[in-house]
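Revision sheet: structure tokens.
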Amino acid sequence: MGASIGAEALAAPEPGAKELRRQLSEQQKELDALIGDYNAKRVSLVTARKSEQAARARLRAAQRRYEQAQQGVRELATLRYQQPDLNLAIFAAGADPSTILRRAAILEQLAAEETALVAGFTKVRDNITPRMRNVRNLIRQRFALSYGVGCYRGVNDGGEHPLGRACDFMVSSGGAMPSPEQARLGDEISEWVIENAQRLGIMYVIYRQRIWHVRTGAWKYMSDRGGVTANHYDHPHISVY
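Predicted:
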């Protein structure tokens, strides 16, 4: 009985109303901070997704303009091949010399504009982001790449290639299973990129049917896509933010 009374005497007193209000206030502040942080991240994610959707829409529109311009150039080239004196012959019937020359000049101007449009779009299309260009240049400086680097692919490809945020570093000719030495080169490139991921702004690396993402920091196997290139055995694929 005495021991029981002693234990009760040593027990901590129940908190009063003031202390309970203080604890509740602190918990409410923590909850408000968590809600605020969650909302901020959600808004950031929505904004990033909208920006990416807008970029893809601009790229699709530019691709359509490019294809239209390219078709115009092909048609003009075909006509010139069939008729070397197109500028004069196409307008010769029933036209006076001044009209012939004026219309020929217009045709030449149109051809020049079409060609310039195609060349200009091709230059923009083949560009990659400054971050991706930096990664590509650093890898080229450090590793002997005999089979080239491919970055841009069309809007139907999906992923980061159409946005200029991805490059494929070929270690063997496309579709050919790399030799052990070539495979080691791919491993070395991947390892170097992963080691410097934070500094370089790397988002993920795909190589040998595996993906490494900066969020997880670990390799994960991918499903079989049916081929050497599709499964990324002949090249590491590197994407940046």
